[in-house]
User: Which sequence fits this backbone?
């Protein structure tokens, strides 16, 4: 399956990455900005699978027809983590 980088025209060297929140949030995973310029650093803790994203279109039977889902495959091979917005929040987790 194809995977993608999600970036913006305003900050082209940054992409979205998914990572475990390690107890810093109620959600087990969060979406973060990752600077590709830092990817060659020895201190880089972002693996390539964390920034290679799946983009899935939601079908006509979905609650959000025409929408998209954005997620990443877990490195353990145990599934996909999908981004979502909590009710009462504009933050993406």
Assistant:
């Amino acid at each position: 399956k194809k995977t993608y980088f999600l970036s913006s025209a305003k900050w082209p060297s940054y992409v979205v990455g998914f990572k475990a929140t390690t107890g810093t949030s109620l959600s087990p995973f969060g979406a973060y900005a990752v600077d590709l310029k830092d990817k060659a650093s020895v201190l880089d803790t972002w693996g390539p699978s964390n920034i290679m994203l799946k983009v899935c279109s939601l079908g006509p039977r979905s609650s959000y027809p025409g929408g998209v889902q954005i997620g990443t495959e877990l490195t353990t091979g145990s599934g996909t983590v999908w981004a979502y917005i909590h009710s009462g929040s504009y933050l993406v987790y």
Notes: Residues 48-51 form the longest helix (4 residues). The helical segments are 48-51.
